[in-house]
Amino acid sequence: MTMSRVGLREVVQAKKYRLLILSLLGVAVIFLILITSLSLGPVNVEWQDILSVLLNVGSTTFDSEKDIIFNIRLPRAIEAISIGASLSIAGAVMQTLVRNPMADPFILGVSSGAALGAISVFTTDIPFGLLLLPICAFIGGIIAFSITLTLSRLAGATPIAVILSGIAVSTAFSSIVTLLLFLNPERSHMGILWLFGSLSLSSWQEVKMILPCSILGIALALLRARTLNVMLMGEEQAQQLGVNVDRLKYEMMILSAFLTGISVSFTGIIGFIGLVCPHISRMIVGGDHRLLLPASIISGSIILSLADLAARVVAMPLELPLGALTAVIGVPFFVYLLIKSRGKYEI
Amino acid sequence: MRSSLRAEIAGVTVYFDSIKALDNVKLKINRNEFVGLIGPNGSGKTTLLRCIYKYVKPKLGAIYIEGRDLKDIGLKELSRLIASVPTEIPERFNLTVSDIVLMGRTPFISSWWEDRKSLIKAEEAMRILDVLHLSNRKFSELSSGEKQRVLIAKALAQEPKMLLVDEPTAHLDIKHQLSIMELLKRIARSNISVLAATHDLNLAARYCDKLVLLKKGRVISVGAPEEVLSPELIAEVYEIKVKVRRDDKDGRIFVIPLSPR
User: Fold this and answer.
1) Which chain B residues touch A96 with a CB distance below 8 Å?
2) Among A154, A173, A338, B99, fewest CB within 10 Å belongs to which?
């Protein structure tokens, strides 16, 4: 970077190009992974058959293959993409909100809160449609998030206080979830799927709920991208720059709980996507949310799709718990961040 | 021609819980003045700056900006009048120098990308602070002197009429201390009133037009450096023994610390 004559217009122009290339590349990679997910499984389907099913011109394929691709694998792949993106954006927003790169829906307890919300609908016999589930998950997530933020404020609001409060809240809510499942053994199979996180119950009916909600939440986050940048300067500076900090904080808290809630209510607790993906994105494209958020959407989609593919394929015909797989990637990453932050966190 | 702001702090009292952080502070900042805020740790320097940009709300008293009560000026409008240079900012988010300077344009833009005028203004500020060549560098990798210049550039990009600076020379070596103070003086002369909190009595004496000496939230003395920095007042406020001498050439005073009292 020795180009000392480069002005700011060129710098911003370069950013716009990077965003364009990132988006094109991201869409291409996601499409490739989508096709691969559709083709792999207990029944392998050729690529050209997949294209013909997708383009609806397939007279050559068997109906059973068509059914597997269209009614089982496609909704699952779409769910993986939209939930990966949602969790990643929720994580990115939370990290900015608490100015702590170790934050994530799982670590801050929001996922567990959402799980409790969903499970309490699930284990009681109140008549519920698919609708009640995400709403209760959302409410549970908001409550957990509020408790975490309040606790961390009481504990002095240091970065490490935020993480510890989150872990406390997460553990508390998870144990209530476990208790509820224990007391309702007839539903514990579904419950276990939930605790480990799984996309195996994906359906078009779920996609119809998840996809619009994800798009809405992500779009709202993107709209606030530039303002989120200002939050990185600290609340005092943000306010000094004319940002209504309290309003933005509430907005972003609700938004990230919403994205977490919608994810958890259908697929259970999938941890660490919200930690790892924004972080990798930040290393590649930098901290500006106008690049960071799109990059997080892409990396979240890719990593969760790949993780789900691995969960399905690695130990076929057995399906591995997805949440455990993401934790296998996520925990070492968390530890790495913890060690790297040495000295910067005053405990 | 835009002119700088004058401000009046009229009997401001601030409580943190039951502790008086500021006690009936009265102070005037005139146009184009470079005012230095001095006093020991915990004397209320930062709190006073925070009152002026509305981060802290006074319990009693009022602040007037160009005769208008600060209570009647919204945050958005205020951010177009007054800029502040923070002592430090969070660094773990991979922001570049240009990211940070462009944030100074926040009060003026509502679009997703910065508009052309913002880019020109931010670039101007970066030229003045000589940080344009650092545009694509990561903020966290800069030296302390460069960081300070970038943060001042951010504040100047805000096109303020008054600049509030908290400890501009902390963590800097002596050459950078002098050049930052030199720069702040130049900024004050270019139609932006400057109020800077500092620990360095000699730099304050050398560069500021006016000094405000605070102790435990109270204004002990206001005036030209030679009025405020008397051995008696310094002894009273800082609890140390000093000699105060005058430079033969430029007539500026300087303080020689001798011993704690």
Assistant:
1) 93
2) A154
Which residue segment(s) compose the domain that A114 sits in? Answer: 90-339
Chain B interface includes A220 (CB < 8 A):
no
Asked if B165 and B194 touch (Cβ cutoff 8 Å), the reply is yes
Query: Which residues on A lie below 8 Å from B120 (Cβ)?
Result: 8
Question: Can you give the residue ranges of every domain in chain B?
Answer: 1-81+162-261, 90-159
What is the pLDDT at residue B222? 95
What one-character DSSP code corresponds to residue A185?
G
Q: Specify the CATH number for the domain of residue A330.
A: 1.10.3470.10
Q: Are strands B162-166 and B60-65 parallel, antiparallel or unpaired?
A: unpaired
**Are the beta carbons of A241 and B158 separated by less than 8 Å?**
yes
Distance from CA of B133 to the nearest CA of A (A): 4
**Is A143 contained in some domain?**
yes
Q: Compute the distance between CA of residue A295 and CA of residue A22 in angstroms, rounded to an integer.
A: 7
Share above pLDDT 90 across residues of chain B, in percent, rounded to a whole number: 82
Task: Provide the β-strand partners of residue B28.
Answer: B8
User: CB–CB of B93 and A99 under 8 A?
Assistant: yes
Q: Is residue A130 part of a domain?
A: yes
Asked if residues A238 and A79 have their Cβ atoms less than 8 Å apart, the reply is no
- Contacts of residue A216, defined as CB under 8 A and 6 or more positions apart, other chains included, come to none
B93–A1 CB contact, under 8 Å: no
Q: What is this structure's pTM?
A: 0.90
Check if B96 contacts A (Cβ < 8 Å): yes
Averaged confidence pLDDT in chain B: 92
Q: In a structure prediction context, what are the per-residue pLDDT tens digits for chain A, which is 347 residues long?
A: 444 456 889 999 999 999 999 999 999 999 999 999 988 877 787 777 777 777 765 555 567 777 888 888 999 999 999 999 999 999 999 999 988 888 899 999 999 999 999 888 877 766 656 678 888 899 999 999 999 999 998 988 787 888 899 999 999 999 998 888 888 877 777 777 777 888 888 888 889 989 999 999 999 999 999 999 999 998 999 999 999 999 999 999 999 999 999 999 888 888 889 999 999 999 889 899 999 999 999 999 999 999 999 998 888 788 888 888 888 888 888 888 778 766 454 33
CB B228 within 8 A of CB B222: yes
H runs (alpha helix) in A98-203: 110-123, 132-154, 159-183, 188-196
State the amino acid at position A51 in one-letter form. Answer: L
Judged against a pLDDT cut of 60, whether residue B76 lies above it is answered with yes
Which of A241, A289, A336 would best serve as a mutation to test chain B binding (most B beta carbons within 10 A)? A241
Q: Choose the CATH number for B1-81+162-261 among 3.40.1110.10, 3.40.50.300, 3.65.10.10, 3.40.47.10.
A: 3.40.50.300
Contact between chains at A1 and B136 (C-beta distance less than 8 A): yes
Judged by a CB distance cut-off of 8 A, whether residue B259 touches chain A is no
- B87 in contact with chain A, both atoms CB, cutoff 8 A: no
Is A267 among the domain residues? yes
What percent helix, strand, coil does chain B show, rounded to 5? Answer: 35, 30, 35
Q: Does residue A278 sit within a domain?
A: yes
